[in-house]
Write a structure and sequence with these properties.
The complex is a heterotrimer of chains A (about 550), B (about 140) and C (about 325). Chain A has about 550 residues and is α/β, with parallel strands linked by helices. Chain A has a domain of about 400 residues: Methylmalonyl-CoA mutase (TIM Barrel, Alpha-Beta Barrel), CATH 3.20.20.240. Chain A is built from 22 helices and ten strands. A five-stranded parallel sheet of chain A has the order 1-10-9-8-7. Chain A has a five-stranded parallel sheet with strand order 2-3-4-5-6, covered by helices on one side. Chain B is α/β, with parallel strands linked by helices and about 140 residues long. Chain B has a single domain, classed as Cobalamin-binding domain (Rossmann fold). In chain B, strand 4, helix 4 and strand 5 form a beta-alpha-beta unit. In chain B, helix 2 packs across helix 3. Chain C has a domain of about 210 residues: P-loop containing nucleotide triphosphate hydrolases (Rossmann fold), CATH 3.40.50. Chain C has twelve helices and eight strands. Classes of the chains: A alpha/beta (about 550), B alpha/beta (about 140), C alpha/beta (about 325). Chains in contact: A-B, A-C, B-C. At the A-B interface, helix 4 and helix 18 of A face helix 1 and helix 3 of B. Strand 2 of chain B pairs parallel with strand 3 of chain C, so a sheet runs across the interface.
């Protein structure tokens, strides 16, 4: 970006400056022995144009809305439209969560985001012995289509989009949503939203799993294929690095494993016979925004550039929208502390700011009490206000990619890109992510990083305010949300009533047909929709998958 | 040669919650403190955990939970240990707990509760100071 | 009921506690092992060994599934290495056997190598006797690595399975010297990976080079498996049965095998007992420290020092 002569002058200047720097340090030594990011990346004492010698402005950085999209996927970015402030909600019964949704929509939220409880996430009904004690705890409990109908009762699902954080049974919950819409006279081509549906990162990080990797891939490709043909406004997958980071990965690992997962889904869909440009524009991503401000911004920028390059060079995409990496961001839950919880507001604000400077399309900010329990309404509101302050008071949304051209940020972006590509090459050498997961490769890499980070905190090498430094004797107590006692019993009784009023012969028929189709190569979505319409329960459908495809068990990597 | 008795600990993840970062880190920290750690893996029922603790003859079970089902799962483990005449196995818990649940868990027989941010050294030291290998 | 009686009647808690005592080298455990001995000798012991990451636990898990379907009771002993730095260990094999955890016909026990003077093999023999006395029909002993300890452990089994994965080229060369010689069955796991055929032919070549290995009539079969998908497991168990028949079909061979095994076991046990009884005393005696200082100052050679100490201890009056 600078010509040879300029660079020579800068190099000479820099040499002089480094001498001055050394002298000054010999008098007053630096505060730390080693300066590094949250991910352990060493940071230099200064960044200058010399650090950008391997970068070409138009090839590597370019303009917003133009390949390789380092500076953003749209030309105007937030000058046109702000990011979507999408807050995750879900608690207790479908009825309770429906109330919360109405409240959010009335407050002006244009997108809903649904959290499910653990049994739902794992494909079990509330009455399963494995579900004991879990009903409604970390989200809403859904056993049948009836619950889905109540969850969205009275909500304008033809105008708002719905995101559902659900993985192994994503196809089933999606089928319930489609069936629910159709019962209300809204066609499947009119509804919009996202299902997370990213199983690979479950094996790697979040560990909500049901069937082994290969059949899981087949179910996902079924949903992508079905969505492309019949539910065109829906994002059938949200390829997620969030949980990889929460499991303790570095920023580079989060990025690399997420994109490698994306590559695996693309390859599988292409193998199914889909044209890349027919579905790639509907793939969305989901990243974590952690505390290391500049490293995170660089990670988001690198992500866009890498995906554009992967789509263009590797998958030969033609449609620029296929090359767009559109992503949702959530601030890092794992960075919050139970100690002095009000400090979490500040942490979340910094992380949200990084996500915005990184060009996110939508954002969830964590509530200060999320480290203890599901957020109270008050805490969730502060979190939403944090976004609104960034959007409308701070001025950071006034111009796209305000940090583009920073010597430090551009260097970080390039380094992160290179290191992430190294990981991707390694995974390619293993014949792709599915095999890498079967060999526990990403799992082990993350386990090592997580332990290293914990040791740094324990030794005080890394500071966590209120935890290993600046601790307080007395702490302000926090009020937390409690799940209604007796909810589990109530939900079990309710589902029993649904089961008693349905036509059990039709249910059995639908499940049998699903099982047969699963043994063939048929796309399963139609069969699942038929089954949910007969009010087959979530677990009844998932048990068919477990029977036909087998159950995946934790390989126990530590 | 009299071999000193080794402390054995079962680190277990009860319930459906898959957040195992904490459990894995604690398992390593216990190993690095010189204990023998049996790791149960994910998605264990209280029954499975107690069965493993007895077969492995551990001195302590460390339960990790981050998804809010601890009020059923933790006391259930203590209850089952009693049923199986194995209440000399100490039960501790780690993870995310609302403040008001902690005294309730302790009353239910959970010996100690570790919340997020507890230094690893504190967790391992607790074992050294409070746990005697069962004779 | 005494402890031994409890164990014989299948009491899990009593067995688990005795295993702990054996592992912790509590002297009282020996008395109970003596009581249990008449009730042992019924179980069939299969050793499964190989480097870390070859999928042994998954293989064992699948073998257990098959054995249980056939109505057999199973004891599993999973040995993992002790950290040389802390003396601690993470024993994670159980994770892959979760599905059997509530099955009363299965007893799973994890052990660490601990790294004391050869005591591991003795401990394992003791634990095998406990599982045997409990009435477990099959005992599967899983160990990691290819060191001397593993070879010793493998030799305590009736049938030894060596597990490899494709692409272990150099490792196979290294195996030749040690563990290859004690394998009765070879399993190439993860056989869907590239290079499986090559690994099979490498092993085949090595076995054929080593004629004395099978001149007795048992030529180790080489099988492929994909334990994760449950493939190849039945074939492995069939070969285990064939090997069992081979060992028992000829009276002559059987008594020769028993003689050798019993002899080996007794030699090892005596060695261990000597170490246990004598070494600790010696090391903690003033004499030992004195000799150490003299050697450090080069006032005496270690050979003489050793002879002096040991002979005085073992043959008092002659020294």
């Amino acid at each position: 970006m600078f010509n040879k002569k300029e660079l020579e002058e800068i190099a000479a200047d820099n040499k002089r400056w480094q001498r001055i720097f050394k002298e000054s340090v010999s008098k007053t030594p630096e505060r730390l022995e080693r300066f590094s990011t949250v991910s352990g990346r060493p940071i230099q004492n200064l960044y200058t144009p010399l650090d950008l010698r391997d970068l070409d402005y138009s090839k590597d950085i370019g303009l917003p809305g133009q390949y390789p999209f380092t500076r953003g996927v749209q030309p105007s970015m937030y000058r046109g439209r702000l990011w979507t402030m999408r807050m995750f909600a879900g608690l207790g019964s479908a009825r309770d969560t429906n109330k919360r949704f109405h409240l959010l929509v009335n407050e002006g939220q244009t997108g809903l985001s649904t959290a499910f409880d653990m049994p739902t996430l794992m494909g079990y009904d509330t009455d399963s012995p494995r579900s004991r004690g879990e009903c409604g705890r970390c989200g809403v409990a859904i056993d049948t289509l009836k619950d889905m109908e109540i969850l969205f009762e009275g909500l304008p699902i033809d105008r708002i989009t719905t995101s559902m954080t659900i993985n192994p049974p994503a196809s089933v919950l999606w089928a319930m949503y489609i069936a629910m819409a159709e019962k209300r006279g809204i066609s499947r081509s009119a509804i919009g939203g996202t299902i997370q549906n990213d199983m690979l990162k479950e094996f790697i990080a979040q560990k909500t799993f049901m069937c082994p990797p290969r059949p899981s891939m087949r179910l996902i490709i079924d949903t992508i294929e079905f969505g492309t043909k019949e539910v065109p406004k829906w994002n059938p997958i949200s390829i997620s690095g969030y949980h990889i980071r929460e499991a303790g990965s570095t920023a580079v690992q989060e990025l690399a494993f997420t994109l490698a997962n994306g590559i695996a889904y693309l390859e599988a869909a292409v193998e199914r016979g889909l044209d890349v440009d027919s579905f790639a524009p509907r793939l969305s991503f989901f990243f974590n925004s952690h505390l290391d401000f500049f490293e995170e911004i660089a990670k988001f920028r690198a992500a866009r550039r890498m995906w554009a390059r992967i789509m263009k060079e590797r998958f030969k995409a033609k449609d620029p929208r296929s090359m767009w990496l559109r992503f949702h961001t959530q601030t890092a839950g794992c960075s919050l502390t139970a100690q002095q919880p009000y400090n979490n507001i500040t942490r979340t604000a910094l992380e949200a700011l990084a996500a915005v400077l990184g060009g996110t399309q939508s954002l969830h900010t964590n509530a200060l009490d999320e480290v203890l329990a599901l957020p109270t309404e008050e805490a969730a509101t502060i979190a939403l206000r944090t976004q609104q302050i960034i959007a409308e008071e701070s001025g950071v949304a006034n111009t796209p990619d305000p940090l583009g051209g920073s010597f430090f940020v551009e260097r970080l972006t390039k380094d992160i890109e290179e290191e992430a590509f190294q990981y991707i090459r390694k995974i390619d050498d293993m014949r792709g992510m599915v095999t890498a997961i079967e060999r526990n490769y990403p799992q082990m890499e993350i386990a090592d990083s997580a332990y290293r980070y914990q040791e740094q905190i324990s030794s005080g090498e890394k500071t966590v305010v209120g935890v290993n430094k600046y601790g307080a004797e007395e702490e302000l107590p926090l009020k937390t949300v409690q799940v209604e006692p007796g909810l589990e019993e109530k939900q079990i009784q309710w589902t029993n009533r649904v089961k008693n009023s349905r036509d059990n012969t039709k249910v059995r028929d639908a499940l049998e047909k699903l099982g047969e189709a699963a043994q063939r190569d048929d796309n399963l979505m139609h069969y699942i929709i038929d089954a949910v319409k007969e009010y087959a329960t979530l677990q009844e459908i998932c048990d068919v998958f477990r029977d036909v495809f087998g159950v995946y068990r934790d390989p126990g990597i530590y | 040669m009299n071999q000193k008795r080794k402390i054995r600990i079962l680190v277990a993840k009860p319930g459906l919650d898959g957040h195992d970062r904490g459990a894995r880190i604690i398992a390593r920290a216990y190993r690095d403190a010189g204990f023998e750690v049996v790791y149960s893996g994910l998605h264990q029922t209280p029954e499975e955990i107690v069965q493993a603790a007895i077969q492995e003859d551990v001195d302590m079970i460390g339960l990790s939970s981050l998804a809010g089902a601890h009020m059923y799962l933790f006391p259930r483990v203590v209850e089952l240990l009693k049923e199986k005449d194995a209440e000399d196995i100490v039960v501790c818990g780690g993870g995310i707990f609302p403040e008001e649940d902690i005294p309730k868990l302790k009353r239910a027989g959970i010996k100690e509760i570790f919340t997020p941010g507890t230094p690893l050294a504190v967790v391992t030291k607790w074992v050294e100071e409070n746990l005697k290998p069962r004779g | 009921m005494g402890i031994a009686e409890k164990i014989i009647s299948g009491d899990v808690t009593a067995a688990a506690k005795l295993i702990r005592d054996i592992d912790d080298m509590v002297p009282e455990a020996r008395a109970i092992l003596k009581e249990l001995y008449p009730f042992t000798g019924m179980a069939y012991v299969v050793g499964i060994t190989g480097a870390s990451g070859v999928g042994k636990s998954t293989l064992v898990d699948q073998m257990v599934t098959h054995l249980r379907k056939a109505g057999r009771t199973v004891g599993i002993l999973a040995v993992d290495p002790t950290s040389p730095f802390s003396g601690g260990a993470i024993l994670g094999d159980r994770v892959r056997m979760q599905q059997h955890s509530m099955d009363e016909g299965v007893f799973i026990r994890s052990m660490a190598t601990r790294g004391y003077f050869g005591g591991l093999t003795q401990s394992i023999k003791g634990v095998i006797d406990v599982l045997d006395a409990m009435g477990k029909e099959y005992i599967l002993v899983e160990t990691v690595g290819v060191g001397q300890d593993e070879i010793d452990i493998v030799q305590t089994a009736h049938t030894s399975i060596i597990v490899l994965i494709p692409g272990m080229g150099d490792d196979i060369q290294a195996l030749k010297a040690g563990i290859l010689e004690v394998g009765d069955i070879f399993v190439i796991n993860k056989a869907d990976r590239e290079g499986a055929d090559r690994t099979v032919s490498d092993i085949k070549f090595m076995i054929e080079m080593d004629e004395k290995r099978y001149k007795d009539g048992w030529k180790p079969p080489i099988l492929t498996a994909q334990a994760v998908y449950g493939k190849g497991i039945r074939e492995i168990l069939d070969e285990v049965e064939k090997h069992r028949e081979y060992l028992t079909s000829s009276k002559e061979r059987q008594s020769k095998y028993r003689y050798e095994k019993t002899r080996n076991d007794l030699v090892e046990m005596i060695k261990d007992k000597i170490v246990y009884e004598v070494l600790d005393d010696i090391i903690h005696s003033g004499e030992f420290e004195e000799a150490l200082q003299l050697i450090m100052k080069r006032k005496i050679d270690p050979y003489t020092a050793c002879d002096n100490i040991v002979l005085k201890k073992l043959k008092p009056g002659k020294g």
